[in-house]
Amino acid sequence: MKQKILVTGGTGYIGSHTVVELQNSGYEVVIIDNLSNSSADVVDNIEKVSGVRPFFEELDCLDYEGLNTVFAKHKGIKAIIHFAASKAVGESVQKPLLYYRNNLLSLINILELMPQHGVEGIVFSSSCTVYGQPDELPVTEKAPIKKAESPYGNTKQVNEEIICDTIKSGSPISAILLRYFNPIGAHPTALLGELPNGVPQNLIPFLTQTAIGIREKLSVFGNDYNTPDGSCIRDFINVVDLAKAHVTAIERILDKKQKQAVETFNIGTGRGLSVLELINLFEKSTGVKLNYEIVGRRAGDIEKVWANPDYANNELGWKAEISIEETLKSAWAWQLKLRERGIQ
What we know:
By secondary structure, the chain is of the alpha/beta class. The chain has a domain at 4-184 and 236-267: Rossmann fold (3-Layer(aba) Sandwich), CATH 3.40.50.720. Helix content is 40%, strand content 17%. The chain has eleven helices and 13 strands. The chain has helices spanning 13-24, 41-50, 64-73, 89-94, 96-116, 151-168, 203-212, 239-254, 275-286, 310-316, 324-340, and strands spanning 4-8, 28-33, 55-58, 77-82, 121-127, 174-180, 182-184, 218-221, 233-234, 236-238, 262-267, 273-274, 292-295. The protein has a seven-stranded parallel β-sheet, sandwiched between helices. A two-stranded parallel sheet has the order 7-10. It starts with a strand and ends with a helix. Residues 6-329 form the NAD(P)-binding domain. Homodimer. It is an enzyme of class 5 (isomerase). Belongs to the NAD(P)-dependent epimerase/dehydratase family.
């Protein structure tokens, strides 16, 4: 058995897929999640997919003493992947204090406790939102950090600064910041996928819920952007590919292969697709027609952004491999499986 890894937010969308990939690579995994945007039965499905049941602790990362107890209980945690955060751009504009409290204090608690329990490193779930609207596309890791368009984006920027300042102060830990683009899709088994509580804030779950009839129609926010078809452009990456990037980052930390104490990598495909192109590809890939309408722009949205993933490809040794068509099929298979299970 390889080393023990703590995954905060491990029953969430990206977290659950990452736990599977960690376990497939032989790591022992402890999950912390407060289940605010997921459910406990995800742990059962992780076990079905990987054949291994991770340790699960229902806990909010804002609970410092609770976190301390978990570290003491699960001795020997070598590294952390920190996903636990509120993550909807639109909601963050409406509820900024919720986002600042959840996203900043949870990280501060973890960084304080890591040296006390001998934890060597952290992989931080960051975002391409830190680049704002980049001056040049595709965007590289050297692109300047822009003023955030939303409180959510700002929490990612500030958290990166907190990590850098903590390590610069002499804290005996290292970090890899993964700035990823737009994760979509589901596990090929259709046992894990994106299942937000309530009305989805992200494009693909709303899209698939519309396709299956749960939602009346999908709103496309704006068709007057400076893009070929007027809709926003994003770099959509398969969630399994993204999960594998976290395993590669953990290995880099534990094998002491980092070239500096804090490293940053863009995790994307290098391909920009507009929202309308994505809808068209979904219809072609699945044969399902989608009811959608163009509405006004949404606060906090960036016009266009996609990654230059060369540094991650060459230095981290990771590459996105799953096609957008397969990714969209997996998202639809997941939605169909949810109906079979009587969910929604």
